[in-house]
Amino acid sequence: MPSPDLESTYGALLIGVFISIFFQGILSVQAHLYYETFPGDSLKLKALVAVVWTLDLAHLVLISQAVYHYLVLSWGNDAALLETSIPLDLHLIPLTLSIVACQAYFLDRVWRFSKNAILTGILAVACLTSGILTIVMTGQTVQSNTIGKDTGEIIAVFSLGAAADLSIAGILCWYLQREMTVFDRINSLLSRIIQFTLATGLATSLLALGCLVAYVVSPKSLIFVASDALFLGSDVH
């Protein structure tokens, strides 16, 4: 039985764990600063921050368990390295829920600015479709019990994710631009918000495209899975 290429599979996954630990630390600091700085925010917004932090932690725990399973418990067992594991499969669930939660927050802003039900609905359908496809992909991976299964859902997930994030960022920037006034102080604040919104949407879109390219170029590796850590970090920060 051929041995898997450890560098492009579990080596990449290990790097993804390191990246996730880094972003979990940043998110923890940001969450603490948020609760300290904005104690008067609504309970719903505070709950959203707590949910995203918890989902990010769950994602980190699952991929850490997966790495431990393959690199410690299955050390020297080539057959085990060719099969998937439950933690590796399930890491997509908190990843997806966290991304959808963040997208829902920005979709709420799109609705508040536009009051356009059709526009908001189209973007919501794109985000939900991407999330549902990820859940379906998780089920397929569990059933196949193999690493690197070639599925069209992966291409659809990253493509829809990139398109949705970029569209949301572009629409928010357009509506913010309309709020410009003759007051320099307000315009300066709006310009900073626009730059932040555009940078966030562009970062997540580029990373989603990066995950897609990594999968298309090397579908049998786990490089695109390691890239999920960057994708999640850019979306929640």
From TrEMBL:
Pfam families reported in the protein's UniProt record: DUF6534
Transmembrane segments: 12-35, 47-68, 119-142, 154-176, 196-217
Start and end residues of each DUF6534 domain: 162-227
Alphabetically ordered keywords of this record: Membrane, Transmembrane, Transmembrane helix
InterPro entries: DUF6534
Name of the protein: ANK-REP-REGION domain-containing protein
Naturally occurring in which organism (per UniProt): Mycena venus
